[in-house]
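hey m, so remember when u said the tokens were messed up on ur end? i reran from scratch. heres the input so u can diff it against urs
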Amino acid sequence: MHVGFGYRTFSLLATRNLFKANNLFSMNKMVKKFYPYLLVFLQMGSLFYIAVSASVISNNSVGLLVEATGIFLAIHAIYVVKVKNVNITPTVKKGSELITLGPYRIIRHPMYIAQIIAVIPLIIDYYSWLRVLAFGLLLITLLVKIQYEERQLISHFPAYIEYKKTTYKLIPFIY
């Protein structure tokens, strides 16, 4: 009787641990599935707050020029990638190809730096601590997105490793 009880107890514990392991595995899969969307939510939330908390147009000519440069870079990057291939999440779309033309010849993530360039004059012109915090959150989110996205790109495009050696992540000749 005691041996049977031990076996049942062991069986119950093993089943419970297996359930926990499967639960953790499915939880890990769920986190991996929603992580890119969390990054997009943080990015868009930061940009949204910056856009609604003050004017979206710089109040001086230098700021307007910087803002326009960011917008132009974003439009040019989207044009080179082709609108149908733009993906807001840091994942690789099916059937996509590695783009190394246009701004991608120099910078691996021109759309991200374009956002930063376009937003900087707005933070300076309409300064508040909350806007600075939103900008900080945007920067951190974009850097995390870049790390995540580059892991995806390396696993999907073997040539990405060589491409990384000849380009800068965000800022030409610096980073």
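this time it looks ok to me. Confidence is low (pLDDT under 50) at residues 5-15. if urs says something different then somethings off w ur setup not the seq
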